[in-house]
Structures
1.
Amino acid sequence: MAAPDSLAEDLVAANRILAERGVLDAYGHVSARSPADSSRFFMSRSLAPELVTAADIQEYAADSEPLGDARKPYLERFIHGEIYRTRPDVMAVVHSHSDSSIPFGVSRTALKPVYHMASFLWSGVPVFDIRRERDDNDLLVRDRPLGEALARSLGRCSCVLMRGHGMTVVGENIPEVVFRAVYTEMNAKLQLQAMGLAGPLTYLSEEEGRRATESNRPTIERPWALWKARALAKK
């Protein structure tokens, strides 16, 4: 089944927005749960995000395999499929090799919200270390058992870091997951900058995080409308 036109357009926009903002480069991917069948999801075939068009969107079954489409899928599609399987509240997923997130996945310094735009990080940012699951690995989540392990590490959080690899962010829709991917990268950058100043750092409290997240949620359409218009104008 083809993705609904509006969903396909949003997936194209999401890929291009995140590429423009440096959250994705030639690698990384964005998906959305199917509105018609919650066990399925839509995502581009294996392609650099900036080049994705509506014709590139594939439908994936519960086993994370494309349905009736022989074109090459992303190797790490299991990240998406297993998160959808374990988190019914998640409707969109971004996997990124975000530059600024990498240091927090390979050190003992936790990624925490330093400003209100990344308040959703109040839920915690666990680190998935693939070596705990499989010694003989290439850092890629290339099958369902590794996808299941990543989903367990994510738990009920909004973001999970992946040691030596990047991050995966989830949301209730495409605009929200794009917002979260953009501001997770920005928060990581700002936290790294602040760590070079006199400390200790003052992070958002759990209560501030909860309240700011609820305040931001109704405004997400504002940046989404701007980013989407810019991204699609470059067809």
2.
Amino acid sequence: MKLYTYYRSQASFRVRIALNLKGIAREDSFLHLEKGDQFAAEYRAINPQMVVPTLIDGDVKLFQSLAILEYLDEKYPEPPLLPSELVARAWVRGLALINAADSHPLIVPRVRHYLTDVLKVSDEQRLAWIQHWLGAGLEAMEALLAEHHASGRFCHGDGPTVADICLVTQVTPAKTFNLPLDPYPRVMRIYDTCMAIPAFADAHPAKQPDAE
């Protein structure tokens, strides 16, 4: 498999975790999003949205991190990233989407650049924007974990799921942008549990070959 990735991309981080959990080898192709590598014609032909990650598996081209995670889970079912029971699967997907569909899209580089370059917001206003949306997602996660009887060391059950992958990629940028995390003890307990697992720790942005 070939993964088009960027070390700071939270979506790429999700896919790296899943590949590590599944024990799947990959070849990385690094794109520097801050330098605009994703806009090159060669990559645009691969992914017209000009974002990462893109995963190439033989003749199959995959995009959007959660779709990639579900593809990997169906093709390589062990260890599972989704529970077997219907309601549990829906709950796990829902928690994951707080990060992948709601919080994360509002803080990606192209949004940050638009805020600064087009709307001309100050650095302080941009940081307030980022912290607001990360905090909103973490607040929702914390409340949902508190009422979910099957949460404990992980978001659901006894092993990591897509919910845990997305929780980690909610907390990581919150740390980067200095959001206070004390209000989210359940979230942080699960984050610490996950980051003690090599598959998570080795996928961290700081450990990637293209990290700066």
3.
Amino acid sequence: MTFLIFFIVPMILGFWAQHRVKSTFNRNLQVAVSNGMTGAQVARRILDANGLNDVPVEQAPGSLTDHYDPRSRSVHLSEPVYTSSSVASTAVGAHEVGHAIQHANAYAFFRFRSAMFPAVQFASNIWALFLFGGFILQVFQLVYVGIALFAIAVLFQLVTLPVEFDASRRAKRQLQDLGLVAANEAEGVKSTLTAAAWTYVAGALASVAMLLYYLSVLRR
């Protein structure tokens, strides 16, 4: 029962979230926007409207690889988003620019997540070595260190949630204020952004469940 609660249920939720975001994205990728603008053009339009003329919009390889890089202050859009004039590309392009606006406005959760990133990189690469090594060697001080490092990674995922939801909120507002989506396209934008948000929610829930499971094993 413990295994079911902490592993199987979050895993099923994660698969469901991944399927939903892919199916929703692919469906709305086939729906053309009336203004004919590509995701790259939408991103550029919103950046310029917010005084972020120096932030470049670049094409990234792969699909669903869209992201904003705070180190180089650049927006990276996957090929389907960069070149497509669709509801999905409009939504994703605007969302990534939402992160650029967060950066420019020093949004608190964005700054906190960026500050955490070096520690999270270290913790994510080494926590399992301490955790499982400690259990195997019966050195529980190592287990404590492993759980603490994993908890840092979990905290990062939790902090990511308000960052992503806020970026989507900014995206929808910018698209509406700048007249970049028609009334009949707004629902498709919303469904694309909501589906993407669920992947972060599912990932965070799975990580929290795993952390609680490790703590319960240690307590026993």
4.
Amino acid sequence: MKRHVLIFGLVGGLLIATLQYTEYRFVVIEHSVELYGALVAILFATFGIWLGLRITRRRVTIRETIRETVVVKEVIVPAEAPAPFVPSPVPFAPNTAHQQTLGITARELEILTLIARGFSNREIATQLFVSENTVKTHCARTFDKLGAARRTQAVQRGKELGLLP
């Protein structure tokens, strides 16, 4: 930093010496305020450009080092391996005895299945083409029939009773 200030000072001194050497004393004496103002403006502009370039170079350098540290690994999956999200060929049949004993309707079971898949009330309502309040009503009735206070308890109880896969 001190080196740059020294260089700027030397350049300014050389400019002034050049003006005196070429015998522009009249211009210097007559317009000294304007010349010194222009000289200061040029120095500050040059310093600002230099500082801006220096700051932006650092950011690019940091981004490049971040890009260089990213490690990419390939995971080879054999073609014979079944995908984890593929449904099993045997469809799940809910335990109808427990369903009838508890009095859970087909629609309530459908909503309970969607809850188990992680859907929100709004997503369930959109998927089943009903209002969100209808979904809330079915949820509340299902929770009461299963004796659950929360969604997670209802899903757990549904799995215990064989209503959910």
